[in-house]
What does this fold into?
Amino acid sequence: MTAQQPVRFDDITAEDLFRLGGSKWSRHGDALGAFVAEMDFGLAEPIKRVLHQMVDDGLSGYISPAWDEQLKQATVDFVGRRYGWQVDTRNVLSAPDVLTGMLITMRHHLKPEARVILPTPAYMPFMFLPQMAGHELVQVPMLRTADNWELDFDAIEDAFEEGDMFVLCNPHNPIGKVYTRDELARLAQIVEKYHGRVFNDEIHAPLTLNGATHVPYPSVSDEAAAHSLTAMSASKAWNLAGYKCAQLVLNDEDLKTSKKFAFDLHGTATPGMLSNIVAFNEGEPWLEEVITYLEGNQQRLLELVAEELPGAVFVPNQGTYLAWLDVEALGIEGRPSDFFLRQGRVALTDGGACGDVGKHSVRLNFGTPRPVLEQVVRRMGAALRNR
Ligand SMILES: Cc1ncc(COP(=O)(O)O)c(C=O)c1O
It folds into this structure.
């Protein structure tokens, strides 16, 4: 393997990843990294090129308005081409990241007394950011069927009070569900009935698997568009989170108060903005390669779970590279993630951090070379057998 040849994903080893020392591969010593939502496949060539060029040209100052315009155009072109969602560049704003987008939504667009309704299991920071912003959090567990997850619409409606905010994550981290148009339309009706809002997180949207179709929430009805704020980024699908750039899609009404955003936009970083532009404009061939590889990983994971963790329940995800494993039947004492870290030297996300429903589950990141994924699950199996 020379520096000139493209690295096949299978050829990247755990040793390589420990040596690089990213977050997933350094926070738990010698434990294999399968927790934080990062992929281990390096960068797409066009993205590498623009970042090298940025350094060569000494572009180290503040964001240029021209790049901001290019990002808006790249964003609307991408969502139009990929999801058939027509957005005006005027309605797109930049932000450093999606969680800042959520904080902005709560700060500028929610009444102080509004509560935040969260379907669980949920992405971990959604469990504490609403409270940090002064809003009560209401967890509504999702319903699990044999091969899918469903929103509990009756419970959501029972939970809703006038002006509350629903947090939609589509594809849904940590369960990987991709919502159908009908589900989104039904949700929109409930939100509308209570004059509520939706914070719509579509950060994982480019990563749909096995033919699943991503439907942007604001595209399902005028009401949905009017009561939602959508946050997205190239950061998950092209692995750019550390470079700091996301996009917020606001409706016309919210745009009127968007002057307040000027300060928040200050946090968007040049490498993030340049790499997001290139990802949207030129990154789809790499993305398709990654999606095909992830589909293969998911298939292998299903086999490995059956072999190594018999009794664990894994509803195959329709999007993203995060697998939700319910390991209750394995009879592990204490937190399953602690057990696998201690006994197996595998770092997983604690399901309990995703809501009360998750305490017998773990989230496993399969966005990694297949031989590493194999090691991860084999180690988990060995830990169970040796206890
Ligand atoms: C669903 C979801 N939303 C938001 C984030 C955080 O995104 P950002 O780094 O842009 O705040 C993540 C990161 O894993 C995520 O999975």
Observations:
- The chain has a mean pLDDT of 95.
- Residues 37, 97-99, 123, 169, 173, 201, 203-204, 233, 235, 241, 246 surround pyridoxal-5'-phosphate (CB under 6 Å).
- DSSP finds 14 helices and 15 strands in the chain.
- The domain at 49-282 is CATH 3.40.640.10 (Aspartate Aminotransferase; domain 2).
